[in-house]
Write a structure and sequence with these properties.
This protein has 2 helices and 14 strands. Strands 1, 2, 3, 4, 5, 6, 7, 8, 9, 10, 11, 12, 13 and 14 form a 14-stranded antiparallel sheet that branches. The protein has helices spanning 2-34, 152-155; strands at 42-46, 55-59, 64-68, 71-84, 88-89, 92-100, 113-120, 144-151, 157-164, 177-178, 191-198, 201-206, 209-215, 222-242. The longest helix is centred in the N-terminal third of the chain and has 33 residues, at 2-34. It has 245 residues and is α+β, with helices and mostly antiparallel strands.
Length: 245
């Protein structure tokens, strides 16, 4: 009888150990599912080695836009926007590396490393894309979007705006403009850009420094992302869109 009781006790201990292992395995699986490093957290990546099928181009004048050898190269004589065709929803972080090129080319002006994110246009019935726009900057006034013009106006200003969809109205807060050289473009120097739209938190980062932040009471929770420039020569690398940590 005593031997039977001992056997039962050992069996219970073994069952408890197995149960603890099962619980630990389930917890690890749940943590992995929530981790921003898992595949589920990555929304989109592009190493720019396979062409431009994922993008739509609005261009004011014929421009050279190529994606090969690890870089999206935009060499444009006038206004141009390169839109990612995939619509984004929910909280997102958009990251990429970018360089304003100055090598003596016709468009090597070093200006306007710009971007739109969470962009939409009610007049297009929920699809900002479709027929390309002219590429002129004024054509985007009707968007609801977040926008940064980094090194705009011939590399004299860096500005953040929250567009409200009204033609001729581009709201600008005093704290959302820089004119000092440390916040402008440096020719042929790659910078890492990070855009955040996470619930009410809207941010723009450059090389680990947060340049702009907005707590948006009525945030734009879905829309499109686009690279924007004007008479400039840019190289974009390592585009990655993911959920916030």
């Amino acid at each position: 009888m005593r031997a039977f009781a001992v056997c039962r006790a050992k069996h219970r201990v073994k069952l408890f150990k197995l149960l603890r292992l099962a619980i630990a395995a389930m917890a690890a699986t749940a943590m992995a599912a929530d981790s921003p490093t898992t595949q589920d957290a990555v929304i989109y990546t592009n190493d720019f080695k396979t062409g431009l099928d994922d993008f739509q181009i609005d261009q004011e004048q014929p421009a050279s836009v190529t994606a090969k050898d690890g870089a999206l190269v935009i060499d444009a004589p006038a206004g141009i926007t390169v839109w990612l065709k995939q619509k984004l929803s929910g909280s997102v972080v958009i990251e990429y590396d970018a360089t304003a090129i100055s090598r003596g080319g016709a468009n090597d002006r070093v200006s306007d490393l710009n971007c739109f994110w969470m962009a939409d246009d009610a007049k297009r019935s929920g699809n900002l894309l479709g027929t390309p726009r002219s590429g002129k900057f004024a054509d985007y006034d009707t968007l609801t979007t977040y926008y940064v013009g980094y090194g705009g106006n011939s590399n004299t200003t860096t500005r953040f705006r929250r567009y409200i969809g009204e033609r001729g109205n581009r709201p600008l807060r005093a704290e959302d403009e820089f004119t000092d050289v440390t916040h402008l473009l440096t020719p042929n120097v790659q910078v890492h850009i990070k855009l955040v739209a996470s619930d009410h938190t809207i941010e723009y980062w450059r090389d680990g420094e947060r340049l702009f932040a907005l707590t948006d009471a009525d945030p734009y929770r879905d829309g499109w992302f686009g690279f924007r420039t004007v008479k400039s020569h840019l190289e974009i690398r390592n585009l990655r869109i993911h959920r916030p940590a």
